[in-house]
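Onboarding guide, step 5: your first structure request.
Type a short instruction followed by the sequence, for example:

Predict the 3D structure of this protein.
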Amino acid sequence: MCDKLGLFVYAFFLISLTFGIYIRKKNPVILALTFLLITFFASLRGGSGVDTALYIQRFQNITFDKISIVEPILPTMMFLSKNIMNSFTLFSIFYGLLLSSLYYILFKNNKNSIYFGLSIFPLIYIDSLYNGLRIGLAYPILFLAIVNSSKSYLLFSVTAHISSLLITPLIIIKKKYIFLGILTAAVYIYIIGFPVEFISERYISKYYKYQELVSRSSFAGIADTVGLFISLIIYYITVLNYKEKKLFYAITLTFFVLFILYFILINKFMFMLRIVRLSMIAVFALIATNQNKINKLALYISLAFGILYSLNYLRQISATCVYPNGGFLPMQLIFT
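The system replies with structure tokens like these:
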């Protein structure tokens, strides 16, 4: 980030979210107010966010005929905001409130979502408001789809981002409604009127886009890969109740499998980062379906990783200076 004050605001948001999640049962109002505060700042972000300029351009050019039947939620919100007040800020407020409401429901109704809340959630929530709005909106819907084994949530998530289809097996297999799941998907594809080939073409085009536009480093994807490793450890502890020797073997095997996958796939192909993050969220959602008592060891692991995950995020944004307006618009209005 170009300005140190903006970096401080990011850090404050991450800490506030972690605190709000931790005390959400005793005082849920704190979490709700934190969501509102961050939504306000994000809606007045100026040029902050790598993808913000792209979304502003899409907002300015949006028309009804540009609302595709594939991933229509975001362009529909843009179209309505543009026709109501012609304000990207208004669109950002609508988006932030919707995203925050979904997460609030998620944390309020699922006690074991706290592991997700203390580890990767703060970063994902902040990032969803500034970059990757479509997939960012799909994350909480997917989480709710897995927790509730809901095909309705899944279809809603697909309208936000088509990569949500990758999670379909979890929704189907959980209650063994394999035939019904396949039938539902077939009817959905038939009703919205595009062939399966279109989906594959969509993925292929995204693959080449990511590979060409994003530079790869020798450490690309390592944070999310470690996050997936941590989520699986928490799953072993809280859901499978592995103890000592069995837990050691499971952790060792998981480490070597992910280590190999990282070097042959994750670090080589940009689209794998999306799959890894979706997998993380899916594992944490499966953990949230568990009704066991909160495990203190898993809680500490989640918090420790969450701190490191957030620090790495702050390091990344502090090393970039690509925002034409230097950071948060409210900060500019107050201090310039």
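Each response can be followed by summary notes, for example: The radius of gyration is 20 Å.
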